[in-house]
Specification:
There is one protein chain. By secondary structure, the chain is an alpha/beta fold. It is built from 21 helices and 11 strands. The chain has a 6-stranded parallel sheet, sandwiched between helices. It has a 5-stranded parallel sheet with strand order 2-3-1-4-5. Helix 12 packs antiparallel against helix 13. The longest helix has 19 residues.
């Protein structure tokens, strides 16, 4: 569970080579750890595993890789019942097998017929829910040793951690109901004790969880600073749209669905009062008016102009796909780029995703820009050519924020990193504005998560934000 950017992939590859070298010198009577190695990872990270292996390992040290994804999966498919839907014999004869969580779920009966020496689950929060097919499929795998890898062992709820550990060390954290009862109410002493338990030695064996943070263990990284922007405040159109939501929500308190809907509306209008509706991004007048209606966009354009002056590169994280496309087009024109910034979101395939990163990484020094979705592009990418991160969109999960920041703040970064946080502040509500309250919530949760493995989100988040924004605004 090392922090993002501390080299979990390289550590895992080194461990797998160590396993292989030991097996060569083991007693012939030992049969453990002699089967193929299985690596399961999100689709977007498969090529990264191969790239890391090629960069850091001697050629062929892990043997032949069976690619059970893309065209490789198509070649392995066989007609027949689920247990025979793949060429199981090819899997058994492979040295290491690389596949996705989705493929494992779809063909888990075929994978279950293979005796793996080691199963590695990368970004293991993918099996965070006990009742999903991804989780069930992971538990059908027959492996002598299981290694779980994630920088966010608790991505949403405390039960995420139980689910991961139930595959890595079944029974260590007890039953799910008892675990939820003990740790599910954000009891800070209990959560601190849970962290101690996971980081303590088990008899003579090492701890089950290795949790290191970059700030404590990585001395070679440059400085990182966070800058927030609250000037200029909301322009008239954004102010009016924000007030309309507050007024309409005055009777929503107590109804969870209404509070959640209101919070989402406030979050949206704090980015832009009209989204991308009615915008022609290729028309200079329309583009200028669109930017002028959003405090955050005005701040970001100013920040990017400053970055351009320094001849440095930036990542801009935006969730809304229509705004992603509009912003990329407008930024190219406004900032004098020779090309329109590329976009990585949930529609970007694994190979194209890596190709976009490679193009961005290989461009010569000078100003450049990449637009990314926080959820789809917040994991698995190393983009150290950029040393600026701009959060045009934010979610109330600090793990998502941190994942985005760590695309640039990781091993290989040589320049000081700046994380830019634009904020839309209502001229009358001030500190009660949504962006201000969201920022405070993220900082508090980030601290709790770091110190005691507290869940980064909770059921009360929406109601807390509702009360702190709509409640405070109604009194202003």
């Amino acid at each position: 569970a090392d922090d993002m950017g501390l080299g979990k992939t390289m550590q895992a590859l080194a461990f797998l080579v160590w396993i292989r070298e030991n097996v060569k010198h083991a007693d012939d009577r030992r049969r453990e750890l002699t089967g193929p190695i299985l690596i399961v990872a999100p689709t977007a990270l498969l090529r990264n595993w191969q790239k890391e292996a090629e960069a850091h390992l001697r050629p062929g040290v892990l043997g032949e890789c069976a690619e059970v994804f893309g065209r490789g999966l198509a070649r392995l498919k066989r007609p027949g019942p689920p247990e025979d839907a793949l060429d199981v014999e090819t899997l058994r004869q492979a040295d290491w097998v690389l596949t996705t969580y989705e493929t494992l779920a779809n063909y888990h009966r075929a994978f279950a017929r293979v005796g793996f020496s080691v199963a590695v689950f990368d970004e293991m929060q993918k099996i965070k829910a006990p009742d999903t097919i991804n989780t069930h499929a992971a538990k059908t795998i027959n492996a002598d040793f299981v290694l779980g890898m994630t920088g966010t062992p608790i991505e949403n709820r405390i039960e995420d951690l139980w689910c991961i550990m139930d595959r890595v060390a079944p029974g260590f954290l007890g039953g799910l109901k008892a675990f939820s009862k003990t740790y599910g109410d954000n009891d800070e002493p209990a959560l601190a004790e849970l962290k101690r338990k996971l980081e303590a030695k088990v008899d003579d064996a090492p701890p089950l969880m290795l949790r290191r943070m970059k700030g404590d263990h990585l001395r070679g990284l440059p400085e990182r600073q966070f800058r927030t922007y609250d000037e200029p405040g909301m322009p008239p159109a954004q102010t009016k749209a924000y007030e309309a939501i507050v007024q309409a929500a005055s009777g929503a308190a107590g109804r969870k669905v209404d509070m959640l809907r209101t919070v989402h509306a406030l979050r949206g209008v704090s980015l832009h009062p009209h989204g991308a509706a009615g915008l022609d991004p290729y028309d200079a007048t329309s583009a200028a008016e669109w930017i002028a209606q959003s405090a955050r966009l005005k701040q970001v354009v100013a920040v990017l102009q400053e970055i351009r002056g320094k001849k440095e590169k930036a990542l801009v994280f935006i969730e809304d796909r229509a705004i992603q496309a509009a912003f990329a087009t407008i930024a190219a024109a406004q900032l004098g780029l020779t090309h329109e910034p590329e976009i990585i979101n949930g529609e970007t395939g694994a190979d194209e995703r890596q190709a976009i990163v490679d193009r961005f990484q290989s461009r010569p020094p000078g100003f450049d820009l990449l637009v990314l979705s926080p959820k789809a592009a917040g994991i698995g990418l190393t983009i150290t050519a950029a040393n600026h991160v701009i959060h045009l969109s934010r979610w109330w999960n600090p793990a998502v924020d941190d994942q985005c920041n760590d695309r640039v703040f990781r091993i290989g970064q040589e320049k000081p990193v700046t994380v830019h946080i634009p904020m839309a502040v209502h001229p009358r509500y001030g500190e009660g504005s949504f962006d201000v309250k969201l920022g405070a919530l993220l900082e508090r949760k980030r601290s709790l998560s770091r110190d005691m493995l507290a869940p980064p989100v909770s059921d009360s988040d929406a109601s807390d934000l509702f009360g702190q924004t709509v409640g405070a605004s109604s009194k202003a």
